[in-house]
Write a structure and sequence with these properties.
Chain lengths: 282, 282, 282, 282
């Protein structure tokens, strides 16, 4: 237990699980939550000054209030301001430039940009993607042929899972490094030119326009496309719809499919950020 | 294409996919189906004499009519009788002694009892079980600890899939042969006495009362139990409920999670049965 | 510790590791070993009467003496006879009918025939086979195409290992049950008619003449054949030699590649046999 | 086939396999090889001017001549000079500053430094490391506990292979990113402080002094250490010897364990370098 005090404002169930884990080490208070949703043992009455304000993913609603999907009231940044210690740090689950004007005297850190959290989130993202495939497909993944576009962290995590299903896995790569990474993972690499047209599922993990109308028109209309790339995604969704190809744009999977794990991963990163800042300041 | 003629009566979507596959080789007619659910190209007007009557899983409703969940009318065995050739064989998706009295002159074969279909069905069953786990758990399978009771075909298929998730897998075995099978699959074997109490999920595949009240009471109430064993199952469900342990009894997974694959597997077995009987009779 | 006394006669290093493990539970003496090869703590001076005589794999040399590759002298069955209790059981690592005439009053059990030992031995056998492939091949197993004939215990253990290498695995099966077993393990099944001709390695695990001259002549001469089946093996070795195909007949791998593990597996089975016989006799 | 001409001088069997692959696309001549070791179809009489000189790994012997382990004569750089076109590029399997003085007018490229070749080489390196473990260990990898220090390309390739063996895998990481990478691959991460002391094998892939005397003295003396890191390695070999710990420093595995694959990987990279330089120069 350190003497750090953290105010966790708004958010979904991830923040509760995050709070529970952080409470083993810090003094935690929740704000922007309906009382009955907060487990016993977590404080909900703010008092004194906090060293850290933890905001959710994303931190702010369109109207500028804190994102509070589990609160029947409203929570605006001004209500929180007076609760912060002079050197308090704001941890936000996505950068939002309004934060700098709301909290001009505080450092703002986007924890979702942290390398270890991005890597960690690949696991629940991949599991959520596989869950969608299992739910949507009328065939087994065993014996199916699947294309994964991109061998980054999410593509790698997906490939690892799909190996267990006995799925034939191709990965679309764009250069010899990608092909070599596929080899290390024991997976067949294809390029945009050598990819097949009859995949059962295509998982896209690349945030570039990979699946253009022209490429989509060469694929089977029976293929299910699951896009895991953040905006703008990597599939031409309009063209897919016109071609009769089913697409699912699956964003925010960690919070939806594994909120406990996702919350604990946020907590892990919060701990790291606090530890690093303490060393710097000492 | 042989000259065999098959009448497929009743059943769910599996029978449609089964029919589509069989139609590449045999003359197929469907009965007990609403017209609009039947894809073009499959006949629905019975005529002449059929060499084989394919009944669904299970074949009969409680009232003795054919099981026809996709038919707004009723289909009784007597309507089918006149359509069968003298030596016609009845293939039923479960043995029902009423069939012998309805069709006294015909051989009745329970295709679900066939070894290759039982083995094949292990794959969609295991995938369906993993889908349930992904849907139910608020944590990732990665890093979870799972117990599989039984290293038969379903337990093996499950273990293969879960390996890909990076799940810690224990298998509960009852003798040294089970332990050796676990070793071949690279999995840790435990016994009823050495199993842990804190599994995230327990999958039961053994159709014996493995998880008695006494054993359940030694497990964490946070554990999810998924029972894949056919009646009477392997979990004391009443005791589990009283102890506050969540249980899911997941029966008939192949048809629910992968009807195309499950239907094609039935077709594969139907082809085998017909081929074997042709050789015998020639 | 029970009061059972076991005399371990002859054998290779496996018997030493077996003895070390058994000595935790039983009173052990070694015979037919050069003194300097026996670790401290294991007795080498027989005395009194033994409840069990453990003979090696195989138990007897051609001339009828005990198989003693690690002994500069000779040990004949008659020397051991007087050391056995009236009800003593002889455990032999292969049945040899001469044993019944040498020890007419004792039960003889072939421990290598035990189901759990056969299953357990599949693991060191498969690892030894992979070691041979790694040593012999000038290419990586990653990206190679391999055929495994037979999906029994050794074939399954091999497939599990090769999956990790990113090898493309085909398994040659002889019936739909074999194909379904392959599906459960996520492996592609082929038949004698659909197998390819350009495998990097073929592992045979079936003790029948699978690879006849006719079949060998359809395979690439660059393929390495590794036969793991006991006599008479499953490859026509003479034809292979004439065709210029390299073959390796790898017998007795557990003792050669993992003597500690193999010895401990024998000990495990000895314990089981003794426990079962004790229950019967009590 | 392009009109490029490549002179391949010296080297081991890798260069032959490399030459064979390159000969499908370029005009190839070998120099610094005993005639009888060169397969038919590869030229050995240099003529005209070459666009590219491919030197081996490493390129030069200590005395400054070309590294020619398969040549009974000697080949000095001066002999090659006159054979090079004015713009010819020198591809060397390791940077050596003497090359710039020998060939002052030519660009020198170290192909072993190329990202895709480093990635590709991870596969034969990992397979070679597993081969050593199989050869050295008296126990099976199945059921063993193994530590991999470093989750870079070689560590990842190793982990993928060992998973198939049913080995319990720990990976020693130095920061939260390493732990997250381990999670993506489904492997348990430990730190220098939380690692166990009883590993069957430790594979080091980190070219820093990881296993100091102090750390080695906390490990079991039964552990086998295999160091895959290039000079200076990551193990205090002297201390290990004094502590009675067996170490193997395994360098240059790709050429030793899979010369065909390693040679083809070099060819792949040579093709890439030539293609990239052609685009630049066009």
């Amino acid at each position: 237990m350190t003497d750090k005090r953290i105010l966790i404002a708004g958010g979904d169930m991830r923040q509760i699980y995050c709070a529970e884990r952080l409470s083993a080490k810090y003094d935690i208070t929740l704000a922007g939550w309906d009382k009955e949703l907060v487990p016993d043992g977590l404080g909900i009455v703010p008092y004194g000054e906090y060293d850290c304000l933890l905001l959710p993913v994303p931190p702010l609603a369109e109207n500028g209030s804190i994102s509070t999907p589990c609160f029947s009231g409203t929570l605006v940044p001004d209500e929180l301001k007076g609760l912060l210690a002079p050197e308090a740090v704001i941890l936000a689950g996505k950068y939002d430039k309004r934060l700098s004007s709301y909290f001009p005297d505080n450092a703002v850190v986007d924890y979702m940009e942290r390398e270890e959290l991005s890597l960690n989130n690949a696991v629940p993202t991949a599991e959520g993607a596989v869950q969608i495939a299992l739910e949507e497909l009328p065939v087994t993944l065993s014996g199916s042929k699947v294309l994964i576009a991109g061998m980054g962290r999410i593509g790698t995590a997906l490939a690892e899972i799909l190996k267990g299903f006995g799925t034939e896995i191709h990965t679309a790569v764009r250069n010899p490094n990608g092909a070599a990474k596929a080899r290390i993972h024991g997976i067949k690499a294809v390029t945009a030119n050598t990819m097949d047209s009859d995949y059962t599922v295509v998982f896209n993990t690349v945030p570039d326009m990979i699946f253009t109308r022209e490429r989509l028109s060469r694929m089977s209309t029976a293929t299910l496309f699951i896009d895991l790339a953040s905006k703008p995604g990597g599939i031409d969704f309009n063209s897919a719809a016109e071609l009769g190809i089913k697409t699912i744009w699956a964003l925010g999977l960690p919070g939806r499919t594994a909120p406990v794990t996702a919350g604990e991963m946020i907590a892990e990163t919060v701990e790291l950020i606090i530890a690093e800042r303490s060393i710097e300041h000492d």
